[in-house]
Design goal:
The protein is α+β, with helices and mostly antiparallel strands. It is 39% helix and 26% strand. The protein has helices at residues 21-29, 50-61, 89-101, 123-135, 145-161, and strands at residues 2-8, 11-17, 62-69, 77-86, 108-111, 117-121, 164-165. Strands 3, 4, 5, 6 and 7 form a 5-stranded mixed beta sheet that branches. The N and C termini lie far apart (49 Å).
Length: 166
């Protein structure tokens, strides 16, 4: 096994190369495939681990941001958006189905002009995602704090400013 660090566009990337045929066969038996970018598939995630699975994927290929609009009005509008990105539209459909089963009913799938797709949620479902990923039955404290903080900043601004939530 070999781990290589690379710099690309001022970002540090890591590559894990597995040379053991036995280990590769074990990984294939678990459902992993080579060059998974466009054919990422997950057979099933046990319900008790689903929130950890979503948070892990979100930490790697998710985004959260909020926008304050109508700033000059007496009560500005505040919108929270969350997105998952993948080159596999089928994977995002699988993710959306799983999220629907966990009470997150919205979500829209978009195909980009590039070679990827996005699964995006508005404010109400973004807050439900926050609950699922960070507060509902998680078995691990592993998380990218900087992404969690965006949700929490949004909630603090909503209370502090009395903004209309869209």
């Amino acid at each position: 096994m070999h781990i290589r660090e690379m710099k690309r566009n001022e970002k540090t990337l890591y590559r894990l190369q597995v040379g053991s045929i036995e280990m590769c066969d074990d990984l294939r038996a678990l459902g992993l495939t080579e060059q998974k970018t466009k054919n990422l598939s997950v057979r099933k995630v046990p319900k008790r681990y689903f929130s950890d699975f979503v948070r892990g994927y979100f930490d790697g290929d998710g985004n959260v941001w909020f926008v304050v609009t109508k700033k000059c009005r007496k009560t500005p509008s505040l919108t929270l958006l969350t997105a998952f990105t993948s080159c596999s539209r089928d994977f995002l459909s699988f993710l959306l189905d799983g999220l629907n089963e966990h009470g997150i009913e919205g979500g829209s799938l978009y195909d980009s002009k590039g070679n990827y797709s996005r699964l995006q949620f508005g404010t109400r479902d973004s807050l439900k995602l926050y609950e699922l990923m960070y507060n509902r039955g998680t078995s691990s404290g592993l998380q990218l704090v900087r992404k969690r903080v965006v949700f929490e900043r949004f909630q603090a601004m909503k209370k502090e400013k009395g903004a209309v939530v869209v």
